[in-house]
Write a structure and sequence with these properties.
The structure holds 3 protein chains of 3 kinds.
Chain A (H helix, E strand, L loop, with lengths): L13 H27 L14 H8 L7 E5 L3 H7 L3 H9 L22 E5 L5 H14 L6 E6 L6 H12 L4 E7 L2 E2 L2 E2 H4 L16 E5 L3 H19 L2 E6 L17 H10 L2 H11 L5 H24 L20
Parallel strand pairs in A: 1-2, 1-3, 3-4, 4-8, 7-8
Antiparallel strand pairs in A: 5-6
Helix pairs in contact in A: 1-2, 1-3, 1-10, 1-11, 2-3, 2-8, 4-11, 5-6
Chain B lengths: L1 H14 L9 E3 H15 L3 E5 L15 H5 L4 E3 L4 H13 L3 E8 H4 L3 H8 L2 H4 L9 E6 L14 H5 L5 E3 L4 H13 L4 E6 L6 E3 L13 E4 L4 E5 L3 H14 L4 E5 L2 E3 L3 H11 L2 E8 L4 H13 L8 E5 L8 H7 L3 H12 L3
Parallel strand pairs in B: 2-3, 2-4, 4-5, 5-7, 6-7, 10-11, 10-13, 13-14
Antiparallel strand pairs in B: 1-8, 6-12, 9-11
Chain C lengths: L2 E7 L6 E2 L4 E7 L2 E6 L4 E6 L6 E3 L5 E4 L8 E2 L32 H10 L17 H6 L2 H4 L5 H17 L2 E9 L1 H12 L9 H13 L7 E4 L2 E4 L5 E3 L1 E2 L5 E2 L2 E2 L7 H17 L2 E2 H5 L3 E5 L18 E5 L3 E6 L5 E14 L5 H16 L5
Parallel strand pairs in C: 4-16, 12-17, 17-18
Antiparallel strand pairs in C: 1-3, 1-6, 2-5, 3-4, 5-7, 7-8, 9-20, 10-11, 12-15, 13-14, 18-20, 19-20
Helix pairs in contact in C: 6-9
Classes of the chains: A alpha/beta, B alpha/beta, C alpha+beta.
């Protein structure tokens, strides 16, 4: 696990914290921009869902989790995997489909897994991860471990039955799970108001007797604070919570998405308002936590890390086809 | 289904003592229950969850009395949320527990199919071998009790289709007693199908009956003229047909698959090499059935041993009807099996 | 044999045949025998209908040589062998022929028919929809299934053996041969080979006899008209007991030649065809000596009877573990076989016979040279 996690607030100083936040978001942003480029170069194939505009959520959330906590994410999970501390080399190799990838080339972009980081995917069935997170939390409760399972999903999942079943079950059993809804307003191409009768998603928590709250996902400090409040309460044994984080997906749903469902002007307006990175850098400069050379230094660090990840992925071996059927079943000799 | 299950439950009171003495006369239901009880006692990570497994005692009364012994934490009643509690079983398995999820019947398992297929079966491979899912999913299956179209499915083949799962179908008391501990010891998800007509099956079980393998077929009756392959609730019907055929001078070998995934090809092929004829009895619908899979394997591996075209006795291609005579006509029956055997023997 | 019944034609007019091709099958007292053509050319006409009983020497077909300027030949008829005529068994109509004329037979029946050389088109199916079953094939292969040999085969054997005991002054010799080396060598030889490619000890016996005969011509040939006539080659008759009773001893031609590898398929083929009644006339007639092996029947020593007009027969008993004094004076359990010789005293004496047996033993001690 990298130094990005575990050293959650309170940070030593505003400057140190600001450096960490910018570094965390910049890593995700630049990594994904490079992935889009590598996709065009045919190095990365399959589905590729980018997180550009939403980085504050992964960075803010992961800062409040401990290494013993668990993360269940979606298919738009590069940011969560990076912020959780899975090495960028292993993630990039997985994007390439190489044997050295964090899922040994079996998962790809949508199925990043890491046992060390307790990172349980990379789940590509919308809402499919919620019952999983509920069960991980159940195991913790049954074993009396003060762990939290953070389950991240998009607002599209709220329309699925598994969302409601899991919210109910977790609340009924008071399980230590954080349901974090990344509301980027579009379920693929379906706008929120076209799919939900109640668009104030955090209010759905009330239906399960569960605390629900909402926070601006473009403000990394606000996300971190909201996540910390929720996780602290959950860890104390008060049961699950729903946290709605409002954000916006700056890029298309996937590399195959012509974006016919939203106006270019809408996207431009969001960009003009600024994503989480732009907004936080502006604030950090304004507060004099950081200056331009700091940002340039972070850019260089990130660029070097990405280049090293690409070099690693390029140099890595393909899994031999003879190994194709490995890991379907666990090696086991009945007693 | 409530009335029927209540009747079953009364049956248990009448038949079963629940006392762990040296008596070896027992039922399929009690054998399952004693396997559950022993597993719960042996390993604190084991717990049972599902609809009405606790206070109700289990829809088929399998878990009756276990709530009192193990408490609501470990005999865990769930809401009617098949997807969530099955998925929670997967998550709990990932989190270090050894959950047993009871889905009341295969009919409701379709609501959990996403979790079983997309999570339980895939996570090990998708994670490059980092995570295994040591989960047991039990469910009742099959028709034969006039429960009509939505409560009479036999969809074992759907699950047997899926790499990453193991699928078993205990058809005897010894397997009802012995498959669960092995399934719990298995590091991968095991789906266990209990045919609803078997719960009241009575018989003797050795007092020391214990864990059994979950990957080999068993020859339940040896014979030289024709191989009958079956599993689960069709085993008693097939054995009855074999008895009737013996009176005609036709000597049937009856193979109980026991494991539907993996399928024990070797036992089947060796038998067909001896008898040169095969009839598969399968309560699933014929199209896309396990019976079709078995026949295909025989044709692939023992074509030149065959002395007659393989035959299948499956359910008719119709939603299972309510009326008794129609339901009976829709399902494999001993008489149909006898007729199929006569046809491949060119007799009768 | 002076009469035989034509069972079926394997060629039709206009077909091109090569010397050695099987052109017909005839039923004799020895069973069904394939008739080969001794000429190459085009089948001009078939002169005999299937089912017709014909005297030996009858021309069966006319073959037109396709070499320019040569006249048409007729194929010679069935094999010579002293035997009463066989009853004619006309082929049954193709009861199992499908609508398109294709034979309907189960996969197992097809495989078994191929093993036995049974022609499925002649069979009547008793399976579902009239399909030929493996049982039908087994019934159609008398040597494999009948409980007794055909009466005429019994009569043939009776005649030959009576003649042997009446006319031939036999003498008998036997010796034990240590097969320790041969067994080890054979295991090594077979180790990497597939089951179907393995050499059996029985072939080593035949090869050892054949190799030994190269220096003992007086055991290889015929006693005819009061004199010994050496054989034209070393053609070892291999006695094959038929499952239904009776026996045949077709010749493994030039058994001393070639390599073991090369001879193995010929040997297997000969035994298979002997059991299925598909021997060639020439194989039935021209063995110059016979080897008989009764070890599988649990016999220690064979006291064989010469097959006239041959002048010798070599018997092999059971290969059994026996105490043997080894080169270093110790005692070890080794596989040992009793090799016995019955020879015609009119042609050779016990002294020669003893040397011949010793030569067979020497060959069995040098299996790598076989």
């Amino acid at each position: 696990m990298s130094k990005d996690m575990g050293d959650a607030a309170p940070a030593g100083s505003d400057r140190a914290r600001a450096l960490q936040l910018v570094h965390g978001m910049l890593r995700i942003r630049r990594f994904e921009e490079k992935c889009a480029e590598l996709y065009g170069a045919l190095k990365i194939r399959g589905f590729l869902h980018l997180y550009v505009g939403e980085e504050a959520i992964a960075v803010g959330l992961m800062r409040v989790l401990t290494p013993e906590d668990a993360v269940v994410a979606t298919y738009r999970e590069h940011g969560h995997a990076l912020a959780r501390g899975i090495p960028m080399t292993a993630i990039m190799a997985e994007m390439y489909g190489k044997a050295s990838g964090c899922s040994h080339g079996r998962g790809g972009s949508m199925h990043l897994f890491d046992a060390t980081a307790r990172f349980y995917g990379g789940n590509a069935i919308v809402a499919g991860g919620l019952p999983l997170a509920t069960g991980l939390a159940l195991a913790d409760m049954l074993q009396q471990r003060a762990r939290v399972t953070a389950c991240v999903f998009g607002e599209g999942a709220v329309a699925e039955g598994e969302f409601h079943e899991s919210m109910n079950l977790a609340a009924l059993w008071k399980l230590p799970v954080l349901f974090l809804c990344e509301n980027n307003l579009y379920a693929m191409g379906t706008a929120l108001e076209r799919s939900e009768a109640q668009t104030e998603l955090h209010q759905k928590a009330a239906g399960y007797g569960m605390p629900g709250s909402v926070v601006d996902g473009m403000d990394v400090l606000a996300v971190e604070d909201a996540a910390r409040r929720a996780v602290t309460a959950i860890r104390s044994g008060s049961g699950p919570q729903l946290l709605e984080v409002r954000t916006y997906r700056f890029r298309a749903h996937s590399m195959f998405d012509p974006e016919r469902y939203r106006d270019k002007a809408e996207v431009e307006a969001w960009k003009k308002k600024g994503g989480p990175l732009t907004r936080f850098i502006a604030r950090a400069k304004h507060e004099r936590w950081l200056d331009e050379p700091d940002i340039e230094g972070l850019e260089r660090t990130v660029a070097e890390e990405i280049q090293a990840a690409i070099d690693f992925a390029e140099a890595s071996e393909w899994e031999p086809v003879a190994e194709l059927t490995r890991d379907v079943y666990t090696p086991w000799e009945p007693a | 289904m409530g009335a029927r299950c209540r009747a079953d439950a009364r049956c248990v009171y009448a038949l079963g003592t629940g006392v762990n003495d040296s008596a070896i006369q027992t039922t399929y239901r009690e054998a399952l229950r004693s396997a559950l009880r022993e597993a719960m006692r042996a390993d604190p990570r084991v717990f049972l969850m599902g609809e009405d497994v606790g206070r109700y005692g289990g829809s088929y009364a399998v878990s009756l009395g276990l709530l009192e012994e193990f408490g609501p934490e470990r005999i865990r009643d769930t809401p009617l949320s098949e997807s969530a509690f099955t998925g929670a079983g997967i998550g709990a398995a990932l989190g270090g527990m050894r959950p047993i999820v009871e889905i009341m019947t295969v009919n409701f398992s379709l609501l959990a199919l996403d979790q079983i297929l997309n999570n339980a079966a895939t996570i090990r491979h998708m994670s490059g071998g980092q995570f295994s899912v040591p989960l047991v999913i039990r469910m009742a299956t099959g028709a034969g009790r006039q429960l009509a179209a939505q409560h009479s499915h036999s969809l074992e083949n759907w699950y047997a289709h899926i790499p990453g799962l193991r699928v078993v179908a205990p058809a005897t008391l010894a397997d009802a007693r012995g498959m669960l501990p092995t399934a719990l010891a298995c590091p991968d998800p095991v789906v266990m199908f209990e045919h609803a007509t078997l719960y009241n099956l009575e018989g003797a079980l050795p007092a020391d009956s214990g864990a059994v393998d979950i990957e080999r077929a068993a020859i339940r009756r040896s014979g030289k003229d024709v191989t009958l392959v079956t599993y689960g609730g069709s085993l008693p019907k097939t054995l009855a047909a074999a008895d009737a055929l013996a009176a005609d001078g036709i000597d049937c070998e009856v193979i109980d698959l026991r494991s539907l995934r993996p399928i024990d090809d070797a036992t089947i092929i060796a038998s067909v090499a001896r008898t040169r004829r095969i009839v598969v009895v399968d309560e699933g619908w014929r199209s896309g059935s396990l019976a079709g899979e078995i026949v295909t394997r025989v044709v692939e591996q023992a074509f030149y041993d065959l002395d007659a075209a393989p035959a299948r006795v499956c359910s008719e291609e119709v939603p299972i009807p309510y009326a008794k005579h129609l339901e009976e006509a829709a399902l494999p029956q001993p008489a149909k099996i006898v007729a199929a055997v006569h046809a491949v023997m060119n007799r009768g | 044999m002076d009469e035989a019944t034509l069972v079926e034609w394997r060629v039709k007019p206009g077909d091109r045949v090569e010397r050695g091709d099987i052109v017909a099958a005839i039923e004799t007292s020895k069973g069904v025998i394939d008739i080969e053509s001794f000429d190459s050319g085009i089948v001009d006409a078939l002169l005999i209908e299937p089912g017709v009983k014909i005297p030996v020497g009858t021309a069966l077909a006319r073959i037109r040589s396709d070499a320019p300027g040569t006249p048409a030949h007729s194929t010679p008829p069935a094999a010579p062998a002293p035997a009463p005529p066989a009853p004619a068994t006309p082929p049954s109509p193709a009861g199992a022929a499908g609508r398109e004329g294709r034979v309907r037979a189960s996969p197992a029946a097809r495989r078994h028919a191929a093993e036995l050389g049974v022609d499925l088109a002649r069979l009547h199916g008793t399976g579902p929809h009239g399909v030929i079953t493996i049982e039908d094939v087994a019934r159609a292969a008398p040597p494999a299934r009948s409980t007794a040999p055909p009466p005429d085969m019994r009569a043939t054997i009776a005649a030959a053996m009576t003649r042997a005991k009446r006319e031939i002054p036999h003498y008998y010799l036997a010796t034990g041969v240590d097969l320790h080396k041969a067994t080890l060598w054979l295991a090594e030889y077979n180790r990497e080979r597939p089951v179907t490619g393995r050499v059996l000890m029985g072939l080593l016996f035949v090869r050892a006899v054949a190799k030994a005969l190269t220096g003992f011509a007086d055991f290889n040939g015929f006693y005819k008209d009061g004199a010994f006539v050496p054989g034209p080659g070393i053609h070892v008759g291999v006695a094959v007991a038929l499952r239904g009773g009776g026996l045949v001893a077709p010749a493994l031609h030039d058994a001393d030649g070639n390599t073991l590898d090369a001879q193995r398929p010929a040997f297997q083929d000969l035994v298979t065809r002997a059991r299925s009644g598909h021997l060639r006339a020439s194989e039935m007639a021209d063995a110059t000596i016979t080897v008989t092996s009764l070890g599988e029947r649990g016999v220690d020593t064979v006291f064989p009877v010469i097959h006239p007009p041959q002048v010798a027969i070599v018997g092999f008993g059971r290969v059994a573990q026996k105490p043997v004094v080894t080169a270093d004076g110790g005692i070890a359990a080794h596989p040992v076989v009793q090799v016995s010789l019955a020879a015609d005293h009119r042609v050779s004496d016990g002294h020669r016979g003893g040397l011949f047996l010793a030569a067979i033993e020497r060959w069995l001690q040098t299996p790598e040279q076989l």
